[in-house]
Amino acid sequence: MSDRETAATIVAVLDVGKTNVKLSAAAADGAIVETLSVPNPVLPGPPWRHHDLDTLSEWVFESLACLSRRHTFSAFVTSGHGSGGVLTGADPDAGDGAMLPMVDYEQPLPADIRDGYAPLAGSFLDRGSATMHGATHQARQLYWMEQCEPQAFAQARWYLGVPQYWAWRLTGAAASETSFLGAQSHLWNVAERRWAAIVSARGWERLMPPFAKAWQRLGPIRPELVRRFGLPDRLAVLAGGHDSSLNHYRYHAAGLRDFTVVSTGTWIVGFSGSTPVDRLDEHRGMTLNSDVFGNPLGGILTMGGREYSQIAGSDPPTDHVPLDIAARLIAQSTIAVPSFGEGDGVFPGSAGRGRILGPSAETAMERKALALLYCALLTVECIDTLSDDRLIVLDGSFLRDPLYAGLVASLLPYREVRVNLAAYGVAAGAALLAGQQTRRDPAPLTLGVATDLKELGTELTRYAADWRNLARAGPGERDEFEPTKGSFHG
């Protein structure tokens, strides 16, 4: 592909998040040209709370038609969050194509489904993670469907991850893909590159289509959709993949190797391709994921964004936190200790035990500063737990305030901390898939240097040590904790 052809290539990227869905026009180098977005609608049961795929389908197809009138697309690709899949029939034109509604993974499970699934889930390698909250994990969602709607389940044709569902709706071609199945689906054993034991035990092989690479062309858009919505008839639809894995691929395509990437948003998600499988501890939020090539990716995840909101409050200031406010909280040992969510995150036994110790954070800016301190310390814990990589890349929403990256860099003096301020990392990685087989040179990437906050000096080191000791303390031990000299005094 010539430089001129590369520059002219525009890729349509559908990014399906839990809360919002975005459709972007992206250049071949990953730069975002235009984006449309809409909330991801959720409906109440019966039979369970579920995503409104019918309404979303109209928006996706109409928006793609709209963008295609302004951009000449060479390919279409979807990224998706790892806890969603759709049990379909054989006909992508039968309504939204689903045989049963797509489960909203954040809803609580019925007790009998939770208890019945537990002994079927298999080993850590089969699961790739601990068994998490709500209806997370595609295997558990399948089990719920099978138990509650056996007749519809028996008539189903495919079970498709979110990206592959949209590819199927557009082309009629069904595919499985390793990065998505390797995102805590409990269906795919990444280390051994095989289906998890539950798939054969339940007879689910019939629902699993053949594998395709994330960048593989599944076909053009079906004539029915071309006629109905005015979609481009020669648009190549790619198989697509898991959102965080595609964000990792973005850096791989840029030529980075032996690095850890930490993305922040609702979740703090860390990935490293150099983490050995035997280092992974499911009780510390660690996961076994897959990159787009099918190789193991050591992972770690914790719901840092939700915890940030609980500490900072519902409407934190938009201005950057002044360094003197963070310094004052550190000096007076105002410490937020985990965990503020329903899960343990990276600290076993900490679920629901989150609280603030020391003098209170009175103002909205102080609460925001405390939340950033907490999330930076949580990020450093994730990095130290996951890998020994010297190069660390931070991206995502926490970078909107430079205090966060500065704190992380200051607490990791023997690592090289870089930041990517671009807001659409997942979409960029997805767009880069279109050039996977033709790219001759590394994809362009601009990384900034995180500034070491030398002004905080040893006080920050002391504060971090106290936080880690408190975070790791058992029930009752926090009240008896003796901080280092000069810090929190109760």
Q: What would your notes on this structure say?
A:
Helix 11 crosses helix 16 (425-432) and helix 14 (364-386) packs across helix 15. Helices cover 34% and strands 20% of the residues. The strands form 6 sheets. Strands 1, 2, 3, 6, 11, 12 and 13 form a 7-stranded mixed beta sheet that branches. A 7-stranded mixed beta sheet has the order 16-17-15-14-20-21-22, with helices on both faces. The chain has 2 domains: 3-239, Nucleotidyltransferase, domain 5 (2-Layer Sandwich), CATH 3.30.420.40; 256-421 and 453-480, Nucleotidyltransferase, domain 5 (2-Layer Sandwich), CATH 3.30.420.40. The protein has helices at 3-8, 53-68, 111-117, 124-127, 138-148, 150-155, 162-171, 178-181, 197-201, 223-229, 243-253, 304-312, 323-331, 364-386, 402-411, 425-432, 457-472, 477-480; strands at 10-16, 20-27, 32-39, 42-43, 50-51, 73-80, 85-88, 158-161, 188-189, 194-195, 217-219, 236-238, 241-242, 259-264, 268-272, 286-290, 296-302, 335-337, 355-357, 391-396, 416-420, 448-449. The model is unreliable at 1-7 and 485-490 (pLDDT under 50). The protein has 490 residues and is α+β, with helices and mostly antiparallel strands. It has 18 helices and 22 strands. The protein is globular.
Q: Helix and strand layout, with pairings?
A:
Elements: H1 3-8, E1 10-16, E2 20-27, E3 32-39, E4 42-43, E5 50-51, H2 53-68, E6 73-80, E7 85-88, H3 111-117, H4 124-127, H5 138-148, H6 150-155, E8 158-161, H7 162-171, H8 178-181, E9 188-189, E10 194-195, H9 197-201, E11 217-219, H10 223-229, E12 236-238, E13 241-242, H11 243-253, E14 259-264, E15 268-272, E16 286-290, E17 296-302, H12 304-312, H13 323-331, E18 335-337, E19 355-357, H14 364-386, E20 391-396, H15 402-411, E21 416-420, H16 425-432, E22 448-449, H17 457-472, H18 477-480
Helix pairs in contact: 11-16, 12-14, 14-15
